[in-house]
Design a protein that fits this description.
two-stranded antiparallel ribbon, alpha+beta, four-stranded mixed sheet, globular
Length: 265
């Protein structure tokens, strides 16, 4: 029997807006403490320094206010669960734009402040169902803001990995939304009910074709923590390395997700 079609997860618009503002603020305050030597450090994103990465964080938020200033498209053509798979095609352009932005804005504090002010002003009167003509496709403002939690959480983790002791905090709502969106994207890309993926305390999804369990402990279970899951989903960590480092617990013949990851690259 095929698995029942699941509803798309609903997100609280007010909480998502607050989460984006909070996580952007966390990054802004941390970047403001970095020395020139720290800003020049390499990151795990090939060719990007910490300065480049910090500038890119502002791009992830500025796209909201910029697109609110554009004409509204006639219809949406990108769903929230399609978004993770639509980002790879823009990677080269994003990289070039990031370096240009970093070079043009030596004062990162001013760049972050301007971006935050424009974002807050643009959102003040914008409705969640307003369509946005983003480069990956037309989607609602509410959905676009959920994708911003992924961008902000992922790049917060990148910055923390690049600068020893930085320890930028993660807003709980931002981390929860990022975890859930990427877990749901996995379930959408590998529909089925044979494997249960648990990312406590935020997400549980079933995926992968095969025998579907109806009660008790499922035969195939994957469990990990939110940041490990996000690293796996975005290619920061490979499945074999996660298993070897005991970052993932996987049991059952259909619990190997190697072929399904990463979701974003």
């Amino acid at each position: 029997m095929p698995p029942a079609r699941k509803r798309t997860r609903a997100y609280d618009p007010a909480k998502i807006r607050a989460a984006v503002v909070a996580q952007f603020g966390n990054v802004r305050r941390a970047v403001g403490t970095l020395t020139p030597e720290q800003l020049a450090l390499p990151t795990r994103l090939a060719g990007w320094t910490v300065r480049d990465l910090a500038a890119h964080v502002t791009m992830a938020v500025a796209t909201v206010s910029r697109n609110l200033g554009r004409d509204e498209p006639a219809k949406a053509d990108l769903t929230l669960l399609e978004w993770p798979f639509a980002t790879a095609a823009r990677a080269a352009g994003i990289s070039d734009g990031t370096r240009d932005l970093a070079a043009a804005n030596p004062d990162l504090d001013a760049l972050f402040t301007r971006t935050e002010d424009q974002f807050t002003e643009a959102l003040a009167t914008a409705a969640g169902d307003r369509l946005m003509a983003t480069r990956t496709g037309a989607m609602t403002l509410a959905d676009l803001l959920v994708t911003r939690t992924v961008e902000l959480v992922v790049h917060t983790d990148d910055l923390n990995a690049a600068v020893p002791g930085l320890e930028i905090p993660y807003d709980r709502q931002a981390l929860a939304a990022a975890t859930r969106l990427l877990a749901d994207a996995l379930a959408a890309s590998a529909p089925g009910g044979a494997t249960e993926v648990r990312v406590p305390p935020y997400a549980v999804v079933q995926c992968v074709e095969g025998p579907r369990h109806t009660r008790g402990t499922p035969p195939n279970v994957v469990e990990t923590d939110p940041l490990t899951w996000i690293r796996l989903a975005t290619g920061r960590l490979s499945w074999p390395d996660a298993v070897a480092q005991a970052k993932v617990a996987a049991s059952g013949e259909r619990a190997d997700l190697t072929a399904l990851l990463p979701l974003m690259s």
